[in-house]
Specification:
This protein is mostly helical and 216 residues long. It contains 9 helices and no strands.
């Protein structure tokens, strides 16, 4: 069994809970309150500023030049796509005033802290953001298709897009290659961080659903 298959199996229960979350259900049927989606997009923009730095850092650690180039491309293409997507929903300057929520801070801190771990573990940490988003986008698209009446149709199409699927498959492929040459201990740590970051994905959407704020 490939490492990716083991990691997904170990985290599939979290993915199923994500599909049942009212935030994701609201995205699918278009009933998600606008203020909750706005909160999510603002936090996502803050999260991605750190996520793309982590992708670039992984690229700098990879021995295989083609894989390093792939992660650099993930970072550069992601910046462009996400900037366009966020720009379509954040049409004013309010995003400059946004402050990272507790969940957003926890997730980004988790990713940034992997810089001192083996590169295999750092790469496994960023994979849920690829894989879970791709699977969620694909699931929503299969459920509703190109429903242009859905106010969140552009978000759905971004993550259900063939290009994003190909990027996800490439990220999985690289992680599997890294796992093949890793020790049993490192491979287990890869699975552990993958599951942990899958939890962060659920928490991120739950944070937006509850309009999470700092209590002090």
């Amino acid at each position: 069994m490939k490492w990716s298959e083991e990691a997904w199996k170990a985290s599939e229960d979290i993915y199923e809970k994500i599909l049942q979350h009212p935030f994701v259900r609201g995205l699918a049927d278009g009933t998600l309150p606008a203020e909750k989606f706005r909160f999510y997009i603002e936090q996502d923009a803050l999260y991605l500023r750190q996520y793309f730095r982590v992708l670039s850092h992984i690229a700098s650690r990879l021995d295989d030049i083609s894989e390093a180039e792939t992660f650099i491309k993930f970072a550069s293409d992601g910046v462009a796509v996400e900037k366009a997507l966020h720009g379509s929903f954040l049409k004013d300057d309010r995003q400059d005033e946004a402050f990272a929520s507790p969940s957003c801070s926890l997730y980004t801190s988790t990713l940034l802290s992997q810089c001192l771990e083996p590169v295999e573990v750092e790469a496994a940490a960023v994979l849920p953001c690829f894989w879970i988003y791709q699977r969620v986008g694909e699931w929503i698209y299969a459920s509703v298709g190109e429903c242009m009446e859905n106010p969140y149709s552009s978000w759905i199409q971004t993550y259900a897009d063939k290009t994003f699927m190909e990027s996800t498959e490439r990220a999985i492929e690289i992680c599997d290659r890294l796992a093949e040459n890793a020790s049993v201990e490192v491979r287990e740590r890869m699975t552990k961080i993958f599951r942990y970051c899958a939890r962060m994905e659920w928490l991120f959407w739950d944070s937006a659903w509850n309009l999470e704020a700092w209590k002090v």
